[in-house]
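sry for the spam today, last one i promise. struct tokens for design, 382 residues
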């Protein structure tokens, strides 16, 4: 209990007032000290908060500076790496450029050399082609003249298509006295080698008929074979020809012929007959016997066909197979009553259609003519 209250209870109001005033002053003094303390504390907190804000701001600035420094460092490193890479790339590019320049120089030299060699090859090729074309003109003068053939057998056609410029196949005709000879033959090979063989065979045919004056077709083939063996069939070579040689004699209805492997075809009354042949070539073969003299007779309007194996052996059609003799005979039989010129056109179109985009494999020669006299047939078997 406060002293002022004790004195108040004792009714000593004066003393109680003194102690009450002292108590108030003490209380005010204490409150003032508390207030001052609080103010000091508050000021301290304010100062601390301010310092903290300043420190935080400083730290933020330092962090920004640090981040910027890191960014600058990264950019500097990246720039350095890029610079090094560009420098390395530049070195490699320069080296590659120099190598390319050297390669281009070498390539240009090679191109010049290749062009020079190509020009030489082209010139040589032109010379060869010109020579072959000239050989073709020579060959044309030696094979049969179709106008001369038409003088004896006016209704005739020839489908003649060499694989190359010159041909191993040939058709040939000549007259001796009252006899007319007509041959369709297939020499060994085609192209230039075949053409040489055809010229040799033609020369031996001429020799047999015009110089040796042999009249029978079989004797002519015997002579050609003998000459071939004497001249070129050495060291196992078997060069020669397959073919048919017919002889038409004025005033006679009978036609004689010799046939080496190839068979003449006769169409009479819309029926096709393969005529006889010897199964051996004009040259060295499995057997060497005297050739047979065959003969046949027919009537006016019959068709006779002589051909080599070039067309039947041609690959083509939807399956790329051979044309074959059977299909050729079907085409001839189907069109034998037509004009001979139409037959030639049909046969040519059929061949080209069958061959299509494939390469021609061999020379082609097909000759057909219409019988003018009245004949009866007499066939002899092979």
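last one done:
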């Amino acid at each position: 209990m406060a002293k002022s209250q004790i004195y108040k209870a004792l009714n000593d109001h004066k003393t109680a007032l003194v102690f009450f005033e002292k108590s108030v002053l003490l209380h005010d003094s204490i409150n003032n000290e508390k207030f001052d303390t609080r103010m000091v504390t508050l000021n301290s907190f304010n100062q601390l908060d301010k310092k903290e804000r300043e420190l935080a701001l400083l730290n933020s600035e330092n962090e920004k500076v640090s981040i910027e420094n890191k960014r600058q460092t990264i950019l500097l490193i990246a720039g350095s790496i890029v610079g090094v890479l560009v420098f390395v790339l530049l070195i490699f590019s320069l080296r590659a450029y120099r190598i390319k320049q050297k390669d281009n120089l070498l390539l240009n030299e090679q191109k010049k050399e290749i062009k020079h060699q190509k020009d030489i090859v082209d010139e040589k090729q032109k010379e060869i082609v010109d020579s072959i074309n000239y050989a073709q003109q020579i060959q044309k003068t030696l094979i049969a003249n179709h106008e001369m053939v038409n003088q004896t057998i006016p209704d005739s056609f020839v489908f003649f298509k060499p694989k190359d410029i010159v041909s191993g196949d040939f058709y040939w005709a000549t007259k001796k006295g009252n006899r007319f000879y007509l041959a369709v033959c297939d020499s060994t090979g085609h192209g230039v080698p075949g053409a040489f063989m055809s010229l040799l065979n033609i020369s031996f045919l001429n020799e047999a008929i015009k110089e040796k004056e042999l009249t029978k077709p079989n004797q002519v083939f015997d002579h050609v074979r003998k000459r071939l063996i004497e001249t070129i069939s050495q060291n196992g070579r078997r060069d020669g020809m397959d073919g048919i040689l017919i002889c038409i004699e004025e005033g006679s209805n009978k036609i004689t012929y010799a046939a080496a492997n190839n068979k003449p075809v006769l169409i009479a009354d819309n029926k096709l007959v393969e005529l006889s042949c010897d199964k051996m070539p004009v040259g060295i073969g499995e057997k060497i016997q005297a050739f047979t003299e065959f003969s046949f007779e027919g009537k006016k309007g019959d068709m006779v066909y002589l051909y080599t194996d070039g067309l039947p052996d041609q690959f083509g059609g939807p399956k790329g197979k051979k044309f074959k003799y059977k299909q050729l005979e079907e085409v001839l039989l189907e069109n034998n009553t037509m004009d001979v010129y139409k037959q030639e056109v049909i046969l040519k179109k059929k061949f080209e259609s069958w061959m299509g985009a494939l390469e021609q494999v061999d020379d082609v020669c097909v000759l057909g003519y219409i019988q003018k006299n009245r004949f009866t047939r007499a066939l002899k078997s092979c």
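Residues 1-113 form one domain. ok im logging off now
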